Amino acid sequence: MTPDLIQRHPRIEALFDTYSDRFGKDQTPYRNHIYRVVNLVASQRLLSEEELDQVAIAGFFHDAGIWLAGTFDYLEPSSRLACHYLEEQGLHAWIPAVEAMILNHHKISRFSRDTLALGEMFRRADWIDVSLGLLRFGLPSARIRHIRETFPNAGFHTLLLKLSGQQLLSQPWRPLPMLRR
What we know:
The chain is mostly helical. It has a single domain, classed as Hypothetical protein af1432 (Orthogonal Bundle), CATH 1.10.3210. The protein has nine helices and no strands. The chain has helices spanning about 10-25, 25-40, 50-60, 65-70, 75-90, 95-105, 120-130, 140-150, 155-170. The protein starts with 9 loop residues before the first helix and ends in an 11-residue tail after the last helix.
């Protein structure tokens, strides 16, 4: 049985309410990317409510350093922002799982031998989305297509290309963040 799509998640929506002015015109593209990633993780195995909350938090923060820290070198800043949020929420025990999802989501090779670990599923989900579904990691193309149709790209990939180009022009000696881990 295919799980229903997660259309709204209270943590994601509350975080966007808190930071909405920081995302500007990029809010819809980033929000849709987050929901695509969260749904792609949830499509890999049944998640507990706690795991879904962890994925939602990691989903919100995984690229958020671009906007909230003002840098395209965003993995560490995004992780710090998520850890600060978790500490404020009294969710200290979740820090290792959320941090692993954020810091390893660009790894090209497997993050964990356990293919059903949250960090590994999150890594695959982000790669599925960034590759526009060319990478599938065993997920049915119909499921990926349904997620993409429900949460349209809205210019997210164009935004990534623009930011990557700016990084290459301004600091050609520094590899892009997805190539450093």
